[in-house]
């Protein structure tokens, strides 16, 4: 058994305007930090349209396809842009998350890290936002449920921003538990504790600015881990955003790199106990390049250790 790294050069072709935080160098730094690690290296495929249609209506998928420019840039909202390479990159992101599910559920890999961009956890059913075009992790969750016939899937999102898109895409799905820890208040303004969804399958864990490691770890030990154990998922998916790091320019949660090691190790403990170690992690945010690379490497080091590579 081993850890799969799923990525594709197309994800370097998504090029927002100069100075945009979601820059090409993010993925370059992550991949450079992983280059010497013992990983099963897998090409992220283009997502099948049927797999996107599990979470987005056809009209939305067609709108995003039509918006893709042949040259120059197109602005979709205040934060979200498309360049000529963005559509392929977004298709690789969703396809990579689904490929991770296939690898882990088939036993070809013990766990997986999907290193793609743009991120996905802010994309709602019919709204691109927060740098995101498609709901990568949500699509992977629905694929695991519908294609592989799993009974329950849990998504854990420790990005510093609330995963409003994943919540929107999964809240009507009683077989999926969505958990988000995030700085609050902070953009996008969602993620209050009373947002529990029609099936009580949404768990939002807001954390105050500058609350740091102790509050983060306590929230997981006291609230998140018991809920995951009670849900008993057949697979754990992770939205791995590293922008809660103290050096990140977009937020103030002040976590340390060691906190990402800790949360990864604890989620692997739960995966071992609940679902045979089956865990797929997908890169979301992280905008200080040094902190992103260091934190991603720490995260993957735990996956490798737990995957037996």
From TrEMBL:
CDD domains: HDAC_classII_2. Pfam families: Hist_deacetyl. The lineage of its organism: Bacteria, Pseudomonadati, Pseudomonadota, Alphaproteobacteria, Rhodobacterales. Residues 1-20 are annotated as: Disordered. Residues 11-20 have a biased composition (Basic and acidic residues). It comes from the Bacteria. This is Acetoin utilization deacetylase AcuC. Belongs to the histone deacetylase family. GO terms for biological process: epigenetic regulation of gene expression. It comes from Roseovarius tolerans. Residues 20-302 form the Histone deacetylase domain. InterPro entries: HDACs (IPR000286), His_deacetylse_dom (IPR023801), His_deacetylse_dom_sf (IPR037138), Ureohydrolase_dom_sf (IPR023696). GO terms for molecular function: histone deacetylase activity.
């Amino acid at each position: 058994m081993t850890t799969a790294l799923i990525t594709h050069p197309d994800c370097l072709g998504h090029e927002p305007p100069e100075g945009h935080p979601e820059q090409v160098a993010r993925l370059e730094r992550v991949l450079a930090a992983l280059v010497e690690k013992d990983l099963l290296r897998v090409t992220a495929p283009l997502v099948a349209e049927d797999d996107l249609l599990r979470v987005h209506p056809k009209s939305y998928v067609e709108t995003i396809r039509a918006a893709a420019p042949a040259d120059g840039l197109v602005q979709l909202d205040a934060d979200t842009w498309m360049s000529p390479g963005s559509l392929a990159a977004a298709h690789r992101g969703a396809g990579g998350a689904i490929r991770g599910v296939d690898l882990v559920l088939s036993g070809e890999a013990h766990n997986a890290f999907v290193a793609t961009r743009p991120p996905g956890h802010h994309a709602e059913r019919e709204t691109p936002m927060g740098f995101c075009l498609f709901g990568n992790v949500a699509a992977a969750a629905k694929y695991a449920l519908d294609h592989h016939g799993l009974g329950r899937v849990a998504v854990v999102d420790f990005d510093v921003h609330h995963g409003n898109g994943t919540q929107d895409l999964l809240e009507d799905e009683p077989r999926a538990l969505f958990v988000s820890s995030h700085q609050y208040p902070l953009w996008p303004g969602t993620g209050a504790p009373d947002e529990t969804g029609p099936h009580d399958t949404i768990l939002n864990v807001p954390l105050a600015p500058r609350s740091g490691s102790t509050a983060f770890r306590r929230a997981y030990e006291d609230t998140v881990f018991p809920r995951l154990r009670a849900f008993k998922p057949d697979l754990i998916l992770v939205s791995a955003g590293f922008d809660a790091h103290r050096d990140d320019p977009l937020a103030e949660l002040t976590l340390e790199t060691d906190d990402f090691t800790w949360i990864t190790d604890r989620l692997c403990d739960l995966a071992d106990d609940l679902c045979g170690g089956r865990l797929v992690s997908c890169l979301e945010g992280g905008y200080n390049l040094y902190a992103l690379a260091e934190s991603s490497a720490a995260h993957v080091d735990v996956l490798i250790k737990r995957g037996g590579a």
